[in-house]
Amino acid sequence: MSKIALITGATSGIGKACAHLFAAQGYQLILLARREALLAETAKYLEDKYAIEIKRITADVRDQEDLSYRLDTLPASWKKVNVLVNNAGLSQGLDPIDKGSIQDWDTMIDTNIKGLLYVTRIVSPWMVAQKSGHIINIGSIAGLEVYPNGNVYCATKHAVDALNQGMRIDLLPHGIKVTAINPGLVETEFSKVRFKGDEGRAKKVYDGLEPLDANDIAEAIWFAVSRPAHVNINDMLIMPAAQATATIIERN
Ligand code: NDP
Ligand code: 8X3
Hints:
Elements: E1 4-8, H1 13-24, E2 28-33, H2 36-50, E3 54-58, H3 64-72, E4 83-86, H4 102-130, E5 133-138, H5 151-171, E6 176-183, H6 190-194, H7 199-204, H8 214-225, E7 235-238
Parallel strand pairs: 1-2, 1-4, 2-3, 4-5, 5-6, 6-7
Helix pairs in contact: 1-2, 1-8, 3-4, 4-5
Bound molecules: NADPH dihydro-nicotinamide-adenine-dinucleotide phosphate and 2-hydroxyethylsulfonic acid.
């Protein structure tokens, strides 16, 4: 059987670009996200184009019980996951700490930290049993720096950075590689989601610069995954050429 990659957040942006790239490399895919119709559309396109098999998991990474049920009931042959891309994540709002929405904070913490942990807790024992695997955690420049009003989103991505390091230590004896991919500005649905559908505000984030696109990040993920067995990329920080730090951006 071909290699298997499980990609969370596969309906859009970086996760969807990864699904396309891994499919092109002949991987069988387990694609997970909440929007069933988009998941089905991507899966059908890739199955037809690359003659690969795809399992769709319509699930919310915050719902531990449902997630557990859906992943645990996969056939045994599909649990031989070679690559897990922990990508599902989001930002909600951009407010100072004294004005932040508690609901936004809960959503980010539950998705970016707890959701990533829930998926990892289910899949990592499968990798331990087979004594191999590669976990790719999608962090961010926001996990290495803190910017004004980024407070809770930055905290969740700092947590991803810590978890990435912790996973690497704990899974080292089991032959499992762990890599963080930390992007700067990537134009996806991310800002539309952050600003709750305000397309004008979302577009302004990328005004006057050429941001990364989702495929730039998928290619970096593929680079990490395709290294020889004795090489691990611990982490990678990838920025648009016009962005030096989270806040220093050259706009024309
Ligand atoms: P998108 O909004 O385009 O994609 C996010 C994906 O995550 C969607 O497929 C969405 O699917 C999924 N998702 C969100 N919440 C959940 C949930 N509760 N359960 C399951 N799936 C979920 O954004 P990006 O592609 O940009 O974001 C991907 C990752 O990259 C995130 O972790 C983000 O923090 C990170 N990142 C993004 C950067 C950027 O500038 N865009 C820069 C640095 C990091 P659905 O809605 O169907 O569930
Ligand atoms: C997404 C990049 O700078 O909007 O993680 O936080 S940023």
